[in-house]
Structure formats: structure tokens, C-alpha cells
Prior knowledge:
By secondary structure, the protein is mostly helical. It is built from 13 helices and no strands. Helix 1 runs parallel beside helix 13. The two termini are 36 Å apart. The model is unreliable at 1-24 (pLDDT under 50).
Amino acid sequence: MRARSPLGPLVAAALLVAAGCSGDTGREFTAAEQAIVDRLGETPSAETDPAETEAARNEFVAECMAEDDLEYLGPAEALSMTEWLGLTDEQFAAEYGFGHSTTIDLSRAYEDFVYATAEEQRAAFEALPADDRDRYRPSELGCLERSYGEFGFPADGNVYLPNDSPINEYIEQASAATADDPRLAEATEAWSNCMAEQGYDFANRDDMGLPLQEEAQTFIEAYGTQGQPLIDAGQTWADLRVADVLDADQTAALEGLQQRELAASAAHELCIDEGHDIEATYAEVYDVRLAELVRS
């Protein structure tokens, strides 16, 4: 499944609504906020590589913080599981589907990686002189805010704005507007019809994903409970496969669930390839509204 976070366009829509005023905070947009708003009318190129954009953003933030005589320690977010595995979204979907039942024996190792990444960054921060620690977060947040005007919002939807930013007020309003947009309903119906042609009765994405998640939870819990004694005996989660932990009946049941997940994911990917991409429509609706607002 292609990884597109709804938060990115959701926040963008918030800015769309805000662009004509400064909200109810009693102040005008700052220069950084205005730069973000001005950028919203630009439609990203289809050739834009999110990874390259984020690398350029990190370089920008590092140079910005260097102006404050501070060294940027890197983004707070760890790599996604897809990135951690070194896969593209399409490769992940082909091998793991949605990742609900197929990554059970990867999740603990990935969580360890995320924890270690956070600990490394925390240790680096704590090693800074006291004065630099006091100045670090304000400098980082200010530079990140400037980066949104330079590169737009991150594809993963992790956006950091000041608490008093007028932009924040419009996020909920933008979400409601998108949910009620007929184009989104039409896209969902077209996707549902496409899935029906392949034998699936899903009215929406939740109908497809939530039951798989709920079924997978039983095996996730069994893997953790039954695997813990092996961990206590000296093995590691990174080396412990589900087949090493679950009994024969559990393994057979999990394999059945995994096959169903992979089949649904393949059908979903086919519908995306045929142009029935609900998440893309979500983003496109916002792009159109943003462009209309900028032109007006």
C-alpha cells in the first residue's frame, strides 16, 4: 500500500482556509507563516521524490540552525518500517501487503530500532552544553517552520508549528470539509466498485483494513506471550520468527490470514493502478481548493 499520510493535505487545507485572514488569535501571520501560505498554491511536480525533498529539508534546517551556532541533530522521527527495510512503498505492498499480519516478527525489532534511535538523539542532546540545550528546541522549531515555506509540508504529515499559530485553528475545519466533499465520496464509491469486481465487498478502506488488524491482534499477542520465555533464555526478537514461537495450528491460521491480506492488498494496488486512489483524491481535492484560493 502506498504510504500517503492524510495529515499533510489536511494541514494544507487548514492553511487554505486561513490564507485570507490571520484567524482568531488576534495577530497577523508572521513572515514564516505567510511564506507557508504563499506556497500552498503550488502543485507539486509528479517527479518530486519525497526522500530527496526531506534530505534537502534536513540540510536546510542544519544550515539554518548553524546560523544560531547550533548543530542539527536530525529529525525527531525514526525511519518508517518501509524505509527501515530498504523498500519502496510498492515493494512493501508486494511483500507484506498492509503489514498487519505479515510483519509480526519484524515489529519488535523495528520497535527496538525506533527506541535506539530516540535514545541516541536524546544522548546527543543531553551532551550539549546547558546553554545550547536551552536554545536548541526554539531554534529547531523556527527553522522547521521556515522549511515549510521553502519545501512545503513533509509527506509523512509531521508538522511542527507554534501553539499560537493561526494555521492550527483550521485543521479540524479542513478535515470536516474534505470528509464532506462529494469528490471524495465519488472516489470511494469507484474504488469500492473496483474491489467488488475482484470479489470484495468493501464500502471503504476501513472495511478492508480493520478486520485484518483485529484478526492479526490475536497472533501479535501470542507471539509476544509465547516468545518472551525464549527472549528470557537469551534469544532476540530480531532473530525470532513466528514459526519459532507459534504452534502448528497457530502458524497455519496465521498463514491463512496473511494470504488473505496479501490478496486484498494486491486487489487494492490494482485499483490504484487503474486510477481509483482515494488518498490521492484526498490530496488532489485540497490542491484544487488551494490553487483556487490563491488565484482569487
